[in-house]
What we know:
CATH class of one domain: Alpha Beta
CATH topology of one domain: Alpha-Beta Plaits
Largest sheet: 4 strands, antiparallel
Number of strands: 4
Shape: elongated
Structural class: alpha+beta
Strand order of the largest sheet: 2-3-1-4
Amino acid sequence: MANYEHIFMSRPDVTAQQVEALIEQYKSVIEAGGGKVAKQEYWGVKSLAYKIRKNRKAHFTLLNLDAPHAAVAEMERQMRLSEDVIRFLTVRVEQHEEGPSIMMQKRDDRRDREDRFGDRGYGGGGGGFRDRGPRRERDSDGAHAAPSAGEG
Length: 152
């Protein structure tokens, strides 16, 4: 059997209990086909990058599957028929990742930003761009004048 990561999005107007019922329905399809669901994660309601079937938000759910192709194909067929599922994606993987997915891990956004912009002079603590010092005077022809002894 192959390993798959399957993510599906359901309409935002369905309740969390209805999403759980959908998960159980699709788990039973996989198990009836001889596979198993290794992990399931409900990510909650998230905003979409663009409208999908007139929806701006959706319930996101991840299923890690260990199942034959026929079982996954049957689950996808049932998702296409469902009005509650607006989009899904199944990807075959070599092995499932251990622990919670990246969407479930908490992260400190401030620390992330400092790591990203650390020594570039913006972001973090300075409150803006770093100071480059005083401007040099220009000659009448527009070229920079030679720095005086006090300037660097």
